[in-house]
Task: structure prediction
Amino acid sequence: MYCKQKESNMSTKLSVQTLHTDFLILGGGTAGCAAALSFCRADTAHSVLIVEKAHIKRSGCLAAGVNALNAYIAPGRTPQDYVDYAQQDAEGIARADLLLTMAEGLNAATARLEALGLTILKNADGSFATRGARNLKINGENIKPLLAAAVEKEPRVTVKNHVNVLDYIMHENRILGAIALDVRERVLYILWAKAVLCATGGAAGLYRPNHPGFSRHKMWYPPFNTGAGYAMGIRAGAEMTTLEMRFIALRCRDTIAPTGTLAQGVGARQVNALGENYEAKYGITTSGRVHGTVTENRAGRGPCVLKTVGITPEQDVDLQRAYLNMAPSQTLKWLESGQTPSVRNVEIAGTEPYIVGGHTASGYWVSTDRETTIRGLFAAGDVAGGCPQKYVTGALVEGEIAAAAALKYMDDPPPTIALDVTEKQRTLEAYLRQQSEESTDALEAEMQGIMDEYAGGIQTSYRFSAESLATAAEKIHALTLRAKNLAATSMQELVYICELQERLVLCRSLIAHLNARQETRWHSFAERTDYPEKSAAWECFVNSKLVDGKVQIILRDLVEAGVRYEH
Amino acid sequence: MSIRFTRALCIGCGACTEICPGSLLALDAQGKAFMAHPENCWGCASCLKECPVSAIALYLGADMGGLGGTLRVRREGTRLLWTIQKPDGTEITIPVDSREANHY
Result:
């Protein structure tokens, strides 16, 4: 698979181009698109540039679609109810100010999605048909194309697809723009802006995945979300929060397809090999559901399944259709084997851990306005911390909040500085020119193996200790040094080198966070063998910042309800 | 997890190479699309939906329990017609209309 031959007639030279914009959006996923649309609604004078590593029509988590909106305030419920739910699920480690400002915007964001053309299931009276207190049933296969089409209609928005952002341009803790690589055009861009939004998504691929071989990318979170936004922030000295609250998804075994549609849609319960429903035993928080399954398996009572046998033939067919709208491989699996959910229960498993602020509280430490600790840099969606259970609509709202706040920088011109990118250009060109015995793929597998074994991956049932983390830190450090000597045989491989280096930066901070929180607050998500209990002493945020090349841990108090948080 | 092309059907339009969220597809010297990094495929099926001639099929790797079946899709107005070919060659087509919400 790994080709050592350089692409024929491949130039090892990159040209340099400079672009100016007013509002620079890094990542054209859910939050990035929402920010661009919202910015244009509120302002008629300024330009927006979205840079996207893939193509905004199908980039980010929603490439395949989504089959429900999980964050909505149902009739009779209030935004505060949503805050309470999310805080309870996070065992108290979530920001009330961020959750409330998000929850207050959920229904308006939903209405805007419907106006763009999203199909939402309705009752006979025209109201939305809610699934429980917070969910709406939709046809979300085309959700990303709908958002992208709206963005592309905005005359003041320029979209640059297939451009990877590599670094921030900084001056005295103010962001001035970013440096990015156009993979197709072989251009190193210097992008200047008055304000910047980081909406690059979370991070997959840090840990050894469920299928480490040919199907290594059959994971829940997009393997192309490599944590670039976290890594750029860490390197630039931004404060990060709660990286230790990893997200582990409970998924259909093999296809790693979502389970919520089975659990909430047809009421399938989690059952062990003895036929016992074990949900109540472990609690029904997100982490509790994973922990229960892991524990039952460890006790020899696996395999665990979602009990779907007994559903009606109509439900069976509806499920096949529903999965085509978000995880088509599951429908293929059911039908190629002939074992659809009405005839065979669906086996479930935990995924490898991800860092994803749309589900847990990991990411940039932001103000209520979603400004990071770097002036002029905002964060929204999976890359923004403190605000779990955002899902799609919450990411939209965060993009909107950040865009509104970014407007205040439009009258605050950034300082002009001299910037020389020659060194960056030379470093990248050297990867294209040089030969190496090292393979980026092999180093990535090694990184994932280290994290799996010593920092709480699937192999150890997500458990770790101070001792194992010390080993992880040592090995990741050694690997980081080795990763400087890689060679790329194509522009895409050059991107893989950059992505590996980003993941290694994030791994270092993640290990420091896992080590700092000396308790087990969330089973599986952060399961310590040396501190197996929850402790009131840790009712605080674990934050971090890179200072002189070292990860410095900062403990911060919880933010009380009603407080407007500013840095 | 990956995709395969029916080379004879490919018209070389490049729509799939543009859309793949992992930038994994490319055109070869004859202008036909191919999967350059099969082991990096996420299985999102974006390329299947984008291909105007249904030249792309999704399959499950043996390491995730795949049995050799394939999934294709064709667009017809607001409907996506998904066709699963089972390992024995029989086919099932499931139409999904974007104007109809999931019931779950």
